[in-house]
Amino acid sequence: MVATAATASFLPVPSPDAGKGKPKGGGGGGVSVNLGGLKEKQGLCGCLQVKANAQAPPKTMEKVENDLPWLPSSSISHAPRTFINQLPDWSMLLAAITTVFLAAEKQWMMLDWKPRRPDMLIDPFGIGKIVQDGLVFRQNFPIRSYEIGADKTASIETLMNHLQETALNHVKTAGLLGDGFGSTPEMCKKNLIWVVTKMQVVVDKYPTWGDVVQVDTWVSASGKNGMRRDWLVRDAKTGEILTRASSVWVMMNKVTRRLSKIPEEVRAEISSYFVDSAPVVPEDNRKLTKLDDSANFIRTGLSPRWHDLDVNQHVNNVKYVGWILESAPQPLLESHELCAMTLEYRRECGRNSVLDSLSDLSGADVGNLADDGFFECKHLLRLDDGAEIVRGRTEWRPKPLNRNFGHVLSQVPVPAEST
């Protein structure tokens, strides 16, 4: 029974009624047909059924019909329309979803999720923030490669620029910045600007390339018509104090170029930001003497360039520091570093001015400055007609040996001259 069923699945079994009532040689499903030398397989048309794959698309049945043109279409049974064979082809959708997930996984793996070091959490590029009950402004600065000098440390002018930048950003962040350069709205209405009259700076340590410094600044009252601004500069990573500075500012009418009292409207704007504290640098009350042509070192013919002017059309006060040091003796610059500075600003300087820089290093042998010791210099910056711009005094300490420029040069081997 089993064998018969198995055989029937491969070989057609003639129908019991096959050939009855049909004359030999006639047409019909049970009549022999000449197929070009091929033997007839009885019951082929009546018993052979082609079953289509239920999962195949409709094109499969059309292909079968095209491949078997000698079979009557009525002899091919089509698969019934069911839920399974009416489902769409999900392969394209699955491939698209897989592609999206693989791309997302790649982007996720490219992200750096490593924990950051504490020094990497500092944002050195922001404009700073108000701290300590809204009275202190704080801003970070990275020391860049173009801000260091031959001794691999930040220059004094770089530090002075940091002080000036935080002062302006303090006014801006507090919402007091008008149309002018550091002027409040009421000051702008009255054509008033701030000008510095005195600056004291003490440098305990110079930062180097790659360091990040944190600058805190705040303001206090100075007499009836002045304002004092203090700065404290720290290493942002260690908290070590690097620089302290204190300055006194007064108001000047930018039209008449004359000093002015603080109007009550302006005082009402700024008085709530004043801090009742002593100067971060004790005031140096020693008189700054005037130098004359008998000074040890004189540099003449200095003149401001266009980019030395600020928006108030006068020379930026930081530029004066560079001009003062133009006349400092070169051996002093190589073997010592500036550790303290006191400047008194007496007159502004315009774009067409021509200046002289005078320095006097008293009680020192310029040719023997490499010896350990502290030195003091007196400075004067004047117009070519003799009018004073800035009087100053600087103090110098020996550089560490690893940053002594002259010491380094003496250790560099010089190639022998070829003969």
UniProtKB/TrEMBL annotation:
GO molecular function: acyl carrier activity; fatty acyl-[ACP] hydrolase activity
GO cellular component, one term: chloroplast
EC numbers: 3.1.2.-
Pfam families: Acyl-ACP_TE (PF01643), Acyl-ACP_TE_C (PF20791), Acyl-thio_N (PF12590)
Keyword Plastid among record annotations: yes
Domain annotation Acyl-ACP thioesterase-like C-terminal: ranges: 296-397
Main subcellular localisation: plastid
Domain Acyl-ACP thioesterase N-terminal hotdog: 134-270
Family: Belongs to the acyl-ACP thioesterase family.
Biological function: Plays an essential role in chain termination during de novo fatty acid synthesis.
Name of the protein in question: Acyl-[acyl-carrier-protein] hydrolase
Organism of provenance: Glycine soja
